[in-house]
Amino acid sequence: MKKILLVCSLLFAVMTVHAQENKLPAVDVKKAGGENYNTAALSNDGKPMIISFWATWCKPCVQELTAISELYEDWQAETGVKLIAVSTDDARNSAKVLPFVNARSWDYEILLDPNGDFKRAMNVGNIPHTFLLNGKGEVVWQHNSYAPGDENELYILVKKLAKGESIEKK
C-alpha cells in the first residue's frame, strides 16, 4: 500500500511540474510605452498566441517578423491569433525599439525585456525564438532560428489550434 501511495504521489508531482512548465512564467517587463507589465497577464481570450523573442540588431528576427507582418492581418481574421514581440534589446537600445517597429508598420503587441528576465524564464538561448501557445495559455510548440518559409509552418499550426486540434510539441 505504501508503494502505491508513493507511486501516486510521484506521478502527481510530475504531472503538476509538467503542467507548470507549459504555462507562462510571471515576469515583470515593460510595454513599448514604458508602463510596467507582468507576463502572467498575457492572454488572447481562448485563441492562439505567438510570442516571438527578437532584437533590432538580429537580421533573422527582423526577417521573420517582417514575413509574418505581411500575412498577419489575414491570420488574425481567420484564427484570432495575437503575436507578442518581445524585444531583448538592452537598456541602451530600448528607446530605439518603438521607432524601429513603427518604421516597419508592425502591428504587434511589443514588450521590452532589457534585462533578459523573461527570456531566461522561458529558457531562450538564441533569438529569434518563437513560441506558440494554445487558447489555455500553454506553450505547445517552439522554434529557434528563422529560414524563409518558417512562417508557413507556424500558420498551419495556428490554424490547427484555432480549430481546437492538438499539435505535437517540438
Gyration radius, rounded? 17 Å
* Mean pLDDT, all residues: 88
- CATH homologous superfamily assignment: Glutaredoxin
CATH architecture assignment: 3-Layer(aba) Sandwich
Q: What is the helix content?
A: 40-55%
What CATH calls the topology is Glutaredoxin
What would you call the shape? globular
Biggest sheet strand order reads: 2-1-5-4-3-6-7
- What's the SSE pattern? HEEEHEHEHEEH
* Oligomerization state: single chain
- Regions with pLDDT < 50 over 5+ consecutive residues? 5-20
Strand content: 15-25%
Return the structural class.
alpha/beta
The biggest beta sheet, please? 7 strands, mixed
Total separate domains? 1
What is the name of the CATH class? Alpha Beta
| Overall strand count | 7
Terminal Cα span: 38 Å
Contiguous helical run count = 5
What does this structure look like?
- The protein has a seven-stranded mixed beta sheet with strand order 2-1-5-4-3-6-7.
- Helices cover 41% and strands 20% of the residues.
- With 170 residues, it is α/β, with parallel strands linked by helices.
- The protein has helices spanning 2-22, 59-79, 94-103, 117-121, 150-162, and strands at 28-31, 36-38, 49-54, 82-87, 109-112, 129-133, 139-144.
- Helix 2 runs parallel beside helix 5.
- It has a single domain (26-162), classed as Glutaredoxin (3-Layer(aba) Sandwich).
- It contains five helices and seven strands, in the order H-E-E-E-H-E-H-E-H-E-E-H.
Relevant terms:
7 strands; 20% strand; 41% helix; globular; single chain; 170 residues; alpha/beta; Glutaredoxin; seven-stranded mixed β-sheet
